[in-house]
Specification:
By secondary structure, the chain is mainly alpha-helical. It has a domain at 40-133: Four Helix Bundle (Hemerythrin (Met), subunit A). Helices cover 66% and strands 0% of the residues. It is built from seven helices and no strands. It has helices spanning 4-19, 22-27, 37-56, 60-80, 89-96, 98-110, 113-133. The radius of gyration is 16 Å and the shape is globular.
């Protein structure tokens, strides 16, 4: 029960990312839906959690998928929201986050759990550094302590 709000947020974020907000766009005849920074960051938080769960379970195919999706979302922010509320988030993401993402990608490709754990923790720290620099120090991400996704197995296929 305590994970229900996170699971609901995750489901919403995944639905928006999968369907591109088409249901919302269809309900409004005048404008189509376009995700904002917060929408993309919620999806990023979901990807961050799922990345950890996949890597922790040594499901390298799923971890590879999740890091790629996480990277694509951040690239969308860089492209569509280079400046957000007078903060140069595009430059901050490029300078702070992209190198740790490459380290996670390399660890996943090497299928090295120890290297993955270290790279994931550095990525998480970089996210928090970016939040602090963007005047959002109250947004603190961490390594997940459990799964908010009871409907997904993170174990690799045998």
């Amino acid at each position: 029960m305590k994970h229900l709000p996170l699971a609901c947020a995750a489901a919403l974020a995944c639905t928006l990312s999968i369907h591109g907000g088409t249901a919302l766009a269809e309900s409004s005849n005048s404008k189509s839906y376009s995700p904002g920074v917060a929408d993309i960051m919620i999806a990023t938080q979901v990807r961050h959690a799922k990345l950890w769960l996949a890597g922790d379970a040594r499901n390298w195919d799923l971890a590879d998928y999740e890091i790629d999706e996480l990277k694509e979302g951040l690239e969308d922010i860089v492209k569509y929201f280079p400046v957000y509320k007078d903060v140069p988030v595009g430059q901050m993401i490029e300078a702070t986050i992209m190198a740790p993402i490459k380290d996670v990608e390399a660890a996943v490709k090497a299928k090295d759990r120890a290297r993955f754990t270290a790279a994931f923790d550095k990525l998480t720290a970089a996210c928090n550094t970016c939040h602090q620099s963007a005047n959002r120090p109250f947004i603190v991400v961490q390594r997940p302590t459990g799964s908010a996704f009871p409907n997904q197995s993170f174990a690799p296929k045998k």
